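Reply to dn_fold:

You asked what the input looked like. This is it:
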Amino acid sequence: SGCKIVCLDEKGDLLHNETIYPHAPQNETGMAMKKIRSLVNSFNIEAISIGNGTASRETEFFIKKIAFDKPPLVFIVSEAGASVYSASKIARDEFPSYDVTVRGAISIGRRLSDPLAELVKIDAKSIGVGQYQHDVDQTQLKNELDSTVMKCVNSVGINLNTASKSLLSYVSGIGEKMAENIVNYRTENGAFEDRKQLKKVPRLGEKAYQQAAAFIRISNGKNPLDNSAVHPEAYSIVEKMAKDLGIKTNDLIANKEKIQAITPENYITETVGIFGIIDILKELEKPGLDPRKAAKVFEFDPTVKSIKDLKTGMILPGIVNNITAFGCFVDVGIKESGLVHISQLKEGFVSDVNEVVKLHQHVQVKVTEVDEARKRIQLSMIL
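and this is what came back:
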């Protein structure tokens, strides 16, 4: 059925979509190359995201053969849960006139530009990570997963003027109904200019505002502090700091020299202690800093395209794609993931796999055993 292509802008909005047929049985490689090259030029594409499902490696090789004027970065992105999203109510509401394949392709593109904003639209259980999830209390599991997603969203912060309903619903104090009200208010009244404007949203009371305010960001708003994690209740402290230094609040933000001249003890109040003041100063130094690292371009071994290409003793680059109690599974660029048993993670005794590896970590592995008939691969991280 071909490769679905979508072109997205920096906000993740759909600009164009179509289908190409570079692989068997059609093998329209030349035509597909021309089409991709033309789209990259027309839409100033900076990066290409390829889902890691069927024909993923073949598509990666095909893309890398194209003679671009300015080659875009190429990333392989996990497709886990993309089909769940594409058939969901959220996807139907977002793209009512497109079919599931186009919606799935949009999700894979958005996962590269802003993975958190895209993955919150999918029930965490559908991402397929973890062991024995069907054997535990489902209510407890849901609460635990929701709480983890909320922590992630709050530690990163969200842009109030671009965040979707799904992302907003995970901000402390907001929830699903309130998120809908915020989006409706934004649609009717335009972009938010400051955090205080949130109080005008129907049914968003003082308590919800207090809980949510520090986690939302407004870039280029009326108050520069609205684009930081400083809570509105502490704005007066920052204003006093700036006044004492004889400068405007705006000139204090990201001004390392001036911030280091501040004595934290001088600004302790009844509600904000010394640790709170230190946190405020850290935030002023790097306002709105996104704690996430930049995506790294990763390349699998080009000689390995199927399990038949694996030989015992090979050293390969891989990505950790699942963690269990007895080890971790590593994607080496073929359909089957290989198992690194807990005893093969590192020299010496390992009590907890999570202490050695993290999900999506880039690792080097050695092939120790290949069972082609049963499609099982044993790997080791002790090289």
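Residues 132-222 form a domain with the DNA polymerase; domain 1 fold (CATH 1.10.150.310).
Hope that clears it up.
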